[in-house]
Design brief:
By secondary structure, this protein is of the alpha/beta class. It has helices at 3-15, 22-34, 45-53, 63-75, 95-109, 140-154, 169-172, 177-184, 189-192, 196-203, 210-226, 238-250, 288-296, 303-310, 315-326, 332-348, 350-364, 379-382, 387-394, 401-409, 430-433, 437-445; strands at residues 58-60, 81-86, 113-118, 164-167, 230-234, 257-261, 376-378, 413-419, 422-427, 451-456, 459-464. The longest helix is centred in the middle third of the chain and has 17 residues, at 210-226.
Length: 466
Amino acid sequence: MTRLGDSVARASALLAQDLSTDSAVEQLLTETKARRYLDLSDLEPKDQAELIASRTVEVLPGVAKLAERIEARQAEGKGLHIKLGIDPTATDVHLGHAVPLIILSRFQRLGHDVTLIIGDFTAKIGDPTGRTAERPPLTDEDIARNLASYREQVRPFFDFERVSFRQNSEWLAPYTFPELLGLLSQVPVSQLLQREDFRNRLAAGSGLTMTEMLYPIAQGLDSVALDCDVELGGADQLLNLQMGRKLMEVHGQKPQLVVTMPLIEGTDGTGAKMSKSKGNYVGLSAPADDVFGKIMSVPDRLMEPYLKAWTEWTDAEIALVLSRVEEKSLHPMDLKKILAGEVVAALYGMEAAMAARAGFVAQFSKKNFTDVETPVVDLAEHGEEPATAVLSKVLGFQPSASAARRVAKQNGLRLVLETAEGQEAVVLPEAEAIRPLGEVARELLAGREATVYLKAGRKIAELRGL
């Protein structure tokens, strides 16, 4: 049996146990965390290709072709040459950014060679993918600062000691205008205009710049320069990746295979992609308790895609736990705690994962908040301020009133009334979140005797002075 097969057998036995207990969960997380570093090179080419394909949207021109390329390289005593391009455009990295690194880690552990291309040249153009306007170009200082932050934050998911780094300014900066014209003469404009975001912007009359039109060409030249076997990218990057295949053919090279990865839905469950601008993300630099709590807040339907995106579980293991949820032998909350533990264990280790689990259970699995220490807001002093201001200025739960307002838009704000009979939670919509908090709370109480709490995500404060 392969090393992966041995691990799956051990984990499957644990997955059949009572997963509401700390002991079973700790054993399971220890097994599956160790799998993130497991040597997978004993897998056959077909099994390797299927393992990669199981976590991707598409493998072009096909999974069988990937297996054939692996087998051919093995016959030469080599691994595949895998490429992922990074445009260092931001300092804050979230779990969505970890997805391609997890796939790359698998390629590494399967015995293949990985090159990360730092898009220092293309970052100055700006990738137009999914944008409604041209992105501002970055300076060299911006790029260096963002890259250092990126590497540090995604390090738990990827072995940077076993990777080659290249900057695409090496081959793009010396590229001459005659060379570019000769290349462009072989690329139909219609191929560039297949991009949906380009068509939408033209239809809206917002126009395109020539630099944006040339971005896919620049990215394709990266593949030519490195003579890659495989390029990874998000599903929204498909046409850029296919341009790499086209340009490799133009240069007489064997076209790379293309592996596209899913765009991860945000934690708010609205269907929008995880992003900082929407506030529906899990930051890789967030404290362990916050990471755990944010994952616990997601809709149950996101457990399957999140398990596939951020764990090393196989399809069979995921199917096993989902069937247990379906037959009601496993509570969805218990599975979600395991998922949250997986992410925290990857970022901060097992001790932090179990501590975050214990902290969550202690604070949020109770029937009431009476014995939970919470901040207090005196409405005699702050009752005329809206909830958005109280959350940002008084409690510091949100960085700004506008950020608190976004949480309200995502139905993440609640007023909780606690009586001897139990709790009643009422969603605080955006329109109510910008009214005076004391007024809103008194209307909700309507003369009843209750303790009132303001809840934003998993953060809670008691409201007094009503």
